[in-house]
Every structure is written in C-alpha cells, then in structure tokens.
Description:
Blueprint lengths: L11 E6 L4 E7 L9 E5 L10 H7 L5 E4 L16 H14 L6 E6 L2 H14 L6 E7 L13 H6 L5 H4 L2 H4 L4 H12 L1 H23 L15 E5 L2 H14 L5 H23 L8 E5 L7 H4 L1 H13 L2
Parallel strand pairs: 3-4, 3-5, 5-6, 6-7, 7-8
Antiparallel strand pairs: 1-2, 2-4
Helix pairs in contact: 1-12, 2-3, 9-10
Amino acid sequence: xxxxxxxxxxxxxxxxxxxxxxxxxxxxxxxxxxxxxxxxxxxxxxxxxxxxxxxxxxxxxxxxxxxxxxxxxxxxxxxxxxxxxxxxxxxxxxxxxxxxxxxxxxxxxxxxxxxxxxxxxxxxxxxxxxxxxxxxxxxxxxxxxxxxxxxxxxxxxxxxxxxxxxxxxxxxxxxxxxxxxxxxxxxxxxxxxxxxxxxxxxxxxxxxxxxxxxxxxxxxxxxxxxxxxxxxxxxxxxxxxxxxxxxxxxxxxxxxxxxxxxxxxxxxxxxxxxxxxxxxxxxxxxxxxxxxxxxxxxxxxxxxxxxxxxxxxxxxx
Length: 317
C-alpha cells in the first residue's frame, strides 16, 4: 500500500500521493466488513470538506465514511491537470486505488458534486466497474441542465456586498461549532482556495455540457439498474430570495437587472425540483425527499436529513 496506512480499518487522515500530486484523505467510522460499502463525500464547486464536519459526525457512528480534499483545496496539492469534472473524477479514482480502498462505494454528492459524481460513474462504467457504485445520494445537486439556473451574472450583481451566510440564515442554522466555523471560513478566504475556485468555475459550464453529451439520464435500462438513488432537495430559491432582498436594500442593480433576477427566481421555482428529480432516472429504485429547514447548504444545516437518505440507500442495496 502506497501510504503504509490501513485505510479500511481505524480512523486516519493524511496526504496520499496519486502520482502527480497529493490529496488529503480522511476516513472515519466503523471498520469495514468485507463487501460492505463505504460512503464517499463529493462536495460542491470549490468546497472543502471542512464544510462537512457535521455530516461526518452524524454518519460516523454507523457508516464507514471517506472525505477528501480535491486538488487545490485544504491541504491537498495543486494539480497539474485542469479541474474539469472528468479530471476531478479521475483523481478520485486514482486516490481510491492509491489508498487501496476497495469497492463498493455509496456516493453522497452536493451541488456541483452531482456533475463530478456522475463523471465518476461514467469513468467506472467505461472500465467495466460500474458495479463498484452501490448507490448515490444527491443533496440539492445539479445535473447537466441546471446551468439554466446557475451560474448567472445577475445573481452576482444583486448579491454584491451581501453577507450570504448572514442573510440566508446559515450563520444561525449551521451545526458547526465555533472552531469548525473558523476553519471553514479561513479556508474559504485563502488565496489557494480562491485560485482553485476560479479554475473550477472556468470549466463549470463546459463540464456540464460534456456530461450531458453522455446522455446518462436517457439510458434504458437505467445506468444503475436497481441500485438505490436518492435525491434530497433543499430550498435554494429561498436563499436567492433573501439575497435579492438584501441586495436591493443595499441599492444593488439597475431596474432591468432586478427584473432579470426576479425572472431567474421564477425560473428556479418552476424548474429546480424537476431538474433535481432528473437524477432519479439513474435507477429504477429511487427516493425523493425534501430538507424542509434548509436552503442550498443542506450539509451545513440538516446533516440528519442526509443521514436518513444514506440509511435509505444502505437499506435498499
């Protein structure tokens, strides 16, 4: 084993080489029994695992759980590869191989993780290893057509100068303690992370288009057959409504820009749920749930809701 660590037993956190660079890998929870799945967390665009401490803490007593920092985030090295969704998936596959963490895997993905996780599924299927993935939980996650909602420049214009964590209620509702919040915000503010965010966003729209060309959601029979797929929806439009109200109070945006933002809110109300439900087409065995108390960042506010969907997946494998 490249790292000299038994990643299947005990709890560990260290840098692991994938050949060209190193990624921070952490594992928690019960030792693995042969053939038992391990949960893999795949965060959103430019998002650190420091945001996922509450979910990890909730899953840890019951489920073997893996978290890793993508290249350029946290303590992980920068990658020589462009951070396309396909390359992010490839680096995860290399990490699992380097650490000798065997399948099966249950993926928990959030936001842009809905794109990177499905590129990981594509990679596994192209290698004849599609059965390595036992199930997926999509947490307020994107699919290829979600680009009709986000990103959008007008959202940034109206939201300029708005404390998003304050106005959306995240500062009040997130489950992280003071030390964990400090670590999360320091990571978000770091120059390294901001550079990575720019690089990931540069490829965001094209990565969605490339995934769409694979037509995974149109496959018959479904790509995962009857392996369980859950979609857990947050209330992203609520976040955007609150940001809009705060931005208008600051005087942000022209009349036309504010009208454009309102049109985007209407499109969110019309399309968001149906787009998220599109990921259910990956399997004949699927489940839809709503995180009633959360905006987009369900992992920060309702880790118990994520636990429930992970349990549903394990119960239906």
